[in-house]
Amino acid sequence: MKILIVDDFSTMRRIIKNLLRDLGFTNTSEADDGTTALPMLQSGSFDFLVTDWNMPGMTGIDLLRAVRADERLKHLPVLMVTAEAKRDQIIEAAQAGVNGYVVKPFTAQVLKEKIDKIFERVNG
Amino acid sequence: MAYNEANALDLESTLKTHARELIETLEMGNVSGAVQLIHELNQVRDRGLYQEVGKLTRELHNAIVNFQIDPASPHAQEVSQIADATDRLGYVVKMTEKAANRTMDLVEESTPLLGEMSQAAQGLRNDWGRFMRREMSAEEFRDLARRVEQFLGQSQHNADQLSAKMNDILLAQDYQDLTGQVIKKVTALVADVENSLLKLVLMASHVDRFAGIHHDREQLRSEQAQQKEPSRGEGPQIHADKREDVVSGQDDVDDLLSSLGF
């Protein structure tokens, strides 16, 4: 399982990376915004995308839309991990085709729950 | 302020008396007298306007002095308090990042030590069970005794190391004190700036009155709202529990998504 973690703060990427490693996912890569993430997704064979929303350059919601619009990437499971907490934004992300939404600050338990749920659905 | 009100009253009363005179003069057919009156009216207005603009300029100048910005200085950027505040906030970001990384470094160094101990204990426990069930030869027992001794030594060593790392994690939280002080200073500066801006706005409103300028606040507001891009993101919500349009935690998010059929 190859996972791409996208967040503009290196500390947050590191936290997510460590939590994912605890869950048994050791093959992770990092990008600091959508602009750098998209080419990585297009050229690498990633199985899962974890992205923040608010980033300079290309935001997470735009990255999600770009992924869904890409013929080869459109089925990629996407989990949004973000501080954005407005109801409208969550609805916007759902409409754009997000597979899970975690609001910061979050716990390891919540992250695990959402990832399990996404893969249950993808594999089921 | 009293001076300002006197000024405004002066304008109003002059307008009223002159307006009456103007009508009377016109009704009498004295056109040149009427033009003279209009000229006087203009002068009253202009005088007020100049005064208010003058006050506004002085207030602006005071603000500039207060914030130690010398527009003529090539180093204006460096000496202004705002630039200083920007530096201070940059320092907060740097400090918090450093502390987060230091803490994570220490946690990452601790994890293998714990794993090592857990693994060794697991192995010893299995063999100890065999010994208790008398399934162990004397030769194997000697090996077990040697490993127990080794484990005790290693445990003590690792525990000491872990204790030192825990202590370092504790110390890495000292940024809170330093960044807290810096943020409090910047907050005070923002309050100062807001105060001065309010004063300037008040001054400008007197100019508007004399110049007869009217601002459509509703339109300004709606224009500003349009300029906001919701997809850019807003960052953390500070009063999430007091707002209807914001979720207050993961449970809220889950409820909302499940109501959407997720």
Q: Biggest β-sheet of chain B, characterized?
A: none
Q: Please state roughly what percent of the residues of chain A sit in beta strands, choosing from under 5%, 5-15%, 15-25%, 25-35%, 35-45% or over 45%.
A: 15-25%
CATH class of chain A: Alpha Beta
End-to-end Cα distance of chain B, whole Å, is: 61 Å
The CATH architecture of the domain at 81-177 in chain B is Orthogonal Bundle
Structural class of chain A: alpha/beta
How is the main sheet of chain A built?
A: 5 strands, parallel
The SSE string of chain A, one letter per element, is EHEHEHEHEH
Q: Can you name the CATH architecture of chain A? A: 3-Layer(aba) Sandwich
Write down the Rg of chain A. Answer: 13 Å
CATH topology group of chain A: Rossmann fold
CATH class of the domain at 81-177 in chain B: Mainly Alpha
Stretches with pLDDT under 50, minimum 5 residues of chain A: none
Family (chain B): Belongs to the CheZ family.
EC number (chain B): 3.1.3.-
GO molecular function, one term (chain B): phosphoprotein phosphatase activity
Subcellular location (chain B): Cytoplasm
How would you portray this structure in words?
- Chain A has one domain: Rossmann fold.
- Chain A has five helices and five strands; from the N terminus they run E-H-E-H-E-H-E-H-E-H.
- Chain A has helices spanning 10-22, 34-43, 60-69, 87-96, 108-123, and strands at 2-6, 27-31, 48-51, 78-82, 100-103.
- In chain A, strand 4, helix 4 (87-96) and strand 5 (100-103) form a beta-alpha-beta unit.
- In chain A, helix 2 runs parallel beside helix 3 (60-69).
- The radius of gyration of chain A is 13 Å and the shape is globular.
- The two termini of chain A are 17 Å apart.
- Chain B is mostly helical and 262 residues long.
- Among the domains of chain B are: 1-66; 81-177, Helix hairpin bin (Helix Hairpins).
- Helix content of chain B is 80%, strand content 0%.
- Chain B is elongated, with a radius of gyration of 38 Å.
- The model of chain B has no long low-confidence stretch (mean pLDDT 84).
- Classes of the chains: A alpha/beta (124), B mainly alpha (262).
- The A-B interface holds A 9-11, 14-15, 18, 53-55, 59-62, 82-92, 94, 101-104, 106, 110 and B 97, 100-101, 104, 107-108, 230-237, 240, 245-250, 253, 256-257, 260, 262.
